[in-house]
Amino acid sequence: MPPVIDSDADQIATRLKRQANEIRARSLQMVHKAKVGHPGGDLSSADILATLYLEVLNVSPQNATAPDRDRFLMSKGHSSGALYATLAAAGFLSDADLDLYMAPGSKLNGHPDRNKIPGVEANTGPLGHGLPIATGCALAAKIAKAAWRTFVLTGDGELQEGSNWEAAMSAAQFCLDNLTVIVDRNRFQQGAATEETIRLEPLADKWRAFGWSVVEVDGHDHAALRRCFKNLPLEPGKPVCVIANTRKGRGVSFMENRADWHHRVPTAEELRMAIHELTGADK
């Protein structure tokens, strides 16, 4: 298919950058208040989530259960703070809902629950589940000859789970070019860098060897992300892997590329400094 050309791309990218930083700031407030969370991965994935929900996906609060909606699955379910803040920015949740993040009895669990939250397609948290579920969704659309698409966001450390590669083989076998996996390639997981734990590189070559089309993008470049998502599929008959190169803790200087921020909670002063860096506000 010919590439999509958009004369308003720069303005849209500027808006998405602001919205993504607002999502980052709000997720940090949630983690600080709850005293638990995964802020490093929240911050690395915020640009991807903002671009998808606020510009690309055919899903909204008004069509959240419509048969022809696009499906998005947050396989790295531990980054629920960023997902919930994005869902609020897209109108699925209220800002007041976010104040109850991980509170006793709250619908905003540490991992998203489709039975409690509109816009959540599947319960995720145990790593390696999102892509298998998404593969089933995409296959269902193919069988039904439906036009809706399935997107799934995985962590890079999550790819050490073998279930992902079983799903990858199946997706290629069934020519699921309506399926897109986005890898949040921040190169850190709990406790260490991915390459110190179990090496993933050459990651792009591995996906290609499994029969996928692969593209690498700057996962913080909203224009590049949007252009990529608007021009899917890359090749007829092939599922797509988007390797989004990101930085753990993106947007906050003292959090970036530090493994300890995988699940560390910011102090009140750290929160103040982080929000100032992200939005220019003092609180």
Topology order in helix (H) and strand (E) letters: HHEHHHEHEEEHHEHEH
CA-atom Rg in angstroms? 18 Å
**Distance linking N and C termini:** 46 Å
Mean pLDDT: 95
What oligomeric assembly is this protein in?
Answer: single chain
Instruction: State the helical fraction.
Output: 40-55%
The first-level CATH class name: Alpha Beta
pLDDT < 50 runs, ≥5 residues: none
Number of helices: 10
> How much β-strand is present in the residues?
5-15%
Summarize the biggest pleated sheet.
5 strands, parallel
What is the structural class? Answer: alpha/beta
What is the 3D form? globular
Name the strands of the widest sheet in spatial order: 1-2-3-7-6
Work out the number of β strands: 7
Please give the domain count. 1
Looking at the structure, the CATH topology is Rossmann fold
CATH architecture: 3-Layer(aba) Sandwich
CATH level-4 homologous superfamily: Thiamin diphosphate (ThDP)-binding fold, Pyr/PP domains
